[in-house]
Design goal:
By secondary structure, the chain is mostly helical. 78% of the residues lie in helices and 0% in strands. The radius of gyration is 21 Å and the shape is globular.
Length: 431
Amino acid sequence: MSDAPSSTAVDVPKLRRKVAWRILPLVVILYIVSYLDRANVAFAKLRMGKALGFSDGVFGFGIGVFFIGYLFLEIPGALLVERWSARKWFARILVTWGLISASMAFVRTPTQFYWARFILGVAEAGFFPGIIVYFTHWFVQSDRSRALSGLLVAVPLSLALGAPVSSLLLDVHLLGIDGWQWLFIVEGLPAVLLGFITLACLTDRPRDAEWLANEEREHLEAELAAESRDKEVTGKISVRQALRLPAVWLLVIGILVGNSGGYALSFWLPTTVKNLSGGSDQLTLLYSGLYYCCGIVSVLVSGQSADRTGDRKWHAAGGMMATGVFLACSVIPGQSFGVQMVWLCLTGFSAFFWISPFWTLPSLTLTASAAAVATGLINMGANLAGYLGNHITGWLRSHSYGETECLLFLAACFMAGGLIISFLRIKPKSL
């Protein structure tokens, strides 16, 4: 049982709502901008490839090399949030990645494209694992899945909004700059402004929150400290021991395999939809937006369901395997594009269903520092998947493999990843 002090002087539900409304909106906006700036190359590709003469192989490597850059500061980024300042670290990330993302408008050669994507990954590294750790400073375990769902809804939301906005920007031609270039500029620079807003508005920990009453700060700090002590008592784990846990490596390998399908599907979706539908670039992006709208609903449903049932493992593993099944169904021969789009919408729902439950798994039994390192390590696996999945997909497309072969490869990644996660053993919550 937790030895947190009595909450008679504090309206706990009101306190949790206050924290959620203060922390989540800004963090969600930051992640919307973050994900759009890494993924908008998928939208720009519809015109950029033809303008610069880039093959699918060039795009596959260029999209994937972002994740190699991202690997460099994964664990240091998570530890900086745990031991230093989320506010300062996130502000640095935002300003640098915004400038680099906007500079993508001016690449001309494959080598420039590779370097720009690599440096963008270095600049953004540590942001997502840092947010995971940051949430442990504000939300108790029972609220964390919902908070993470609020964050992760930013992924499909950023792409659902980005698709129609990018569709409009592709047709802009001003000052001798093509539409695909304006896409990078217009979608990159807001991150710079948000960096300064983050520095002014984000609060590192409850003890720094002047917007909370004294008794609210004390209650929240005590509640989080009691939860941390409970973890220490039930299983004190050093950083070195955390890296030796079989469960950590199952999570690393599971997300490495599953996300090889996930990232590649997101980055190549506009190309896939265009090839399947034969429609215009604008119609392609609108159909892509429909896929991501299904993802928005899914993230919200998944987080609530995981918190209500207390189950995380099967939400993650089952969602991943269902994604593979629906994606494989989309390439059954003889279907019209309308039917294929239905399968893709079901794929979009399941592809975002597993994510928030998955990211609550590392913090269930680990101490704070061990969880920070484990989260960084698992996210390294997730981002290595971004390189492998996109590079392999680009290679397949450059070697005359069609949509059927490419989508079946991605479906197999999802199903294998879910199968691996199903072998996790999660200790039942003590009553």
